[in-house]
Amino acid sequence: MSDNALHDAVDTLDVDQFWERGYAVLPGVYTPDEIEALREAAYASRGYGGDLLANPRLRHVLTDGRMVAVARKLLGTDDLFYGGDSSFTINGTQKGWHKDNADRVDPHAPDWDSRYTQLRFGIYCQDHSEHTGGLNLRIGSHDMRNTTEGEVLYVKTKPGDLAVWSMRITHSGNGMLLKDPDAPFPMPTEHDRFTSDEVAEADGDRIAIFAHIGANDSHAKRYCDYTKTRTYLVDAWRKRPYDDEARQAAKDAGLHLRDMPAEVMDDPDAGLNELWAPIPYEGQKGSPAAPRAGAADGADTKAMVKANLRRAARAAKSGLKGARDSWRASG
C-alpha cells in the first residue's frame, strides 16, 4: 500500500464512530501480494515461538507504520505502547464471548475508570465477506460491564482489510456466516444448530494475525501486569526473547516497548495462571490483601482460580470458554 493510500485510509477513519461502536475496519490497507506474503510467513513460522516482534518474518506487521498510524489517529497521541502481545493463528478453533482487557467482571476495577486506550488489531488473510470463520462482536459492548449485551455482528472483512477494536469490547473468534443473507448472525453457542448446507463455505485455511498497541498509560501498564500472569504468553516469551534488532525496530516504529521476555525470563512468579484470573488493585472491595500471582501456595491458587471462574461464568454464561482462552479466541 502506498503512503498516500494509507494516509487516505487513516484520514477517513471516523474516530467518534469508533469510540461509539467500539471497532472499525479500514479497507484495502494491504495489497493482495502482501496478504499472500503474510500467509506464507505464517506457514513458515509455525513452531517458531515468541510474539510478532521476535519473529523476523512477521515483525514488519507491527513496525511498518500502518497499525501505528491508526493507533495515533484513534488515541490522539504519539506516545504509543507495545508489550509483547501479538500472535498469528492458523485454523484456530476457539470461540466464545469474552473481553481482552484485564478487568472483565469487576465494574469497580481500574479498566473501567476512564476511556480504555488499548487496541487490538486483526488482519484476516482470507475472505470473510462471503465466507464463514470471521470475527463476531457485540456493537458498543466496550462500554458494557458484561458479555451479554450489545447487538451481535459478524464482521465481513475482505483480504487486505485492517480491523481494530477496543480490547474491552465483547467478541468471539470463528464466527459463523450463514448462506441466508436475511438470517441473524448466530451466537457462538448456536453453531451446532445449523447444518453444513446452511453455512457459507470457508475460504481455505483461516490465517489471522493479531496485535495489541495502546497509549502509553496506566491502562497499558495494568494490561501488561495481567499478561505477565498468563502461562501461554510467558512460555512464548521465554522461548523467543527479543534481540537488539527487534528492540530497535520497535523504537524506530515509535513504540514504547516493555520488554516482557526479559522481564519474565527469570521470574518464578510469572505465568502461573493457565486460565484468566483478575489481578488485584488498590482499594479493591473485599480483598484488602489480595495476593499477586504466585503468592499463594498451590491449593490456595487453585481455589482462587475456581472462585474467579465462577464469577466469570455468572457474568458471561455464554462466554466462559472465551474468558478462559483470553485473546487466543479474539478472532
Which tags fit this structure?
alpha+beta, 30% helix, seven-stranded mixed sheet, disordered C terminus, 331 residues, single chain, three-stranded antiparallel sheet, 10 strands
Question: What is the number of beta strands?
Answer: 10
Largest sheet: 7 strands, mixed
Oligomeric assembly: single chain
Helical coverage, percent range = 25-40%
Our measurement of the CA-to-CA distance between the termini, rounded to an integer number of angstroms, reads 24 Å
SSE pattern: HHEHHHEEEEEEEEHHHEHHH
Q: Helix segment count? A: 11
Provide a descriptive summary of the structure in words.
This protein is an alpha+beta fold and 331 residues long. Helices cover 30% and strands 15% of the residues. The protein has eleven helices and ten strands. Strands 1, 2, 3, 4, 7, 9 and 10 form a seven-stranded mixed β-sheet that branches. A three-stranded antiparallel β-sheet has the order 6-5-8, with no helix packed on it. The longest helix has 18 residues, at 298-315. It starts with a helix and ends in a 6-residue tail after the last helix. Mean pLDDT is 89; it is low at 288-309 and 311-329.
Short description:
This protein is an alpha+beta fold and 331 residues long. It is built from eleven helices and ten strands. The protein has helices at residues 3-11, 15-21, 32-44, 60-63, 66-75, 218-227, 231-239, 244-252, 260-264, 298-315, 320-325; strands at 23-26, 80-82, 86-90, 118-124, 135-139, 151-155, 162-166, 171-172, 207-215, 255-257.
